[in-house]
Hints:
Beta Polymerase, domain 2; 7 helices; elongated; 41% helix; alpha+beta
Amino acid sequence: MRSEQEILDLILSVAKKDDRVRAVVMNGSRVNPNAPKDFFQDFDVVYLVTEKESFIADPGWIRVFGQLMILQLPDEMSPPPEHSDFYAYLMQFADGNRIDLTLFPVSRLAHLPDDSLTLALMDKDGILPRFDPPNDSGYLPTPPTSKEFLDCTNEFWWVCPYVAKGLWRGEIVYAKHTLEEYVREQLDKMLAWYVGVCTGFTKSPGKLGKYLEHCLEPELWQLLLSTYSDADYAHTWDALLAMGELFRRIATPVAGHFGFAYPLEDDWRVTAHLHHVRHLPRDAKEMYG
């Protein structure tokens, strides 16, 4: 596996030799001083170029970076990209390294998205603005508004009965999808706010919650783990109820911190309904009778 320095030298060497490339910046965890370092980290690189069409017209130009394991061109996939300024090459190499290389026109430099994790690697013409030292301030959770908090709690408790319905009907795929796609989405939001409250909004739970083990109290971490289950019906019921318990235990202090009202009666009614449906006979003719 090529070393970090070898990959960086290669990225800069290619840019230096190509007059179309006028500047190079790197983003992501490789420049984050708070991110754990390992060999799985991507090299998130932006080439600021005079134009990108000639690169796109020559698909083979990226071979200079090494032997590919697999390539993805997200801007060629459907649906069409929202931002036509970008063109990205997501390159996973056979030696384990990965480079996510984005082309961005110099003429649109003023529209380059602001990213607190930005490090200038090359600037041939002195066109780059002065970046602050890379930091994760742009990735920290932000305090919720009262409406955001109430929308999150409402959506969480609203969707839980959908999972119960699927489990009672014997529709495990529907139930699992609803649990993981919709209920967990709201749980993840509340977890981020909870971590923010506990740390003064100075610490991030990480992308997809990858740092949550280090942010939560051990008891809450174990409760979070219990929200993941296999496709067994009883285990999925347990996971759903564990999600409700965890949500309640983190949403309550978040509400208290900001002076929001936690909808405890909604919580009680939905939780009682979940327990009722779990024990509802499979041959029941009525939900309540």
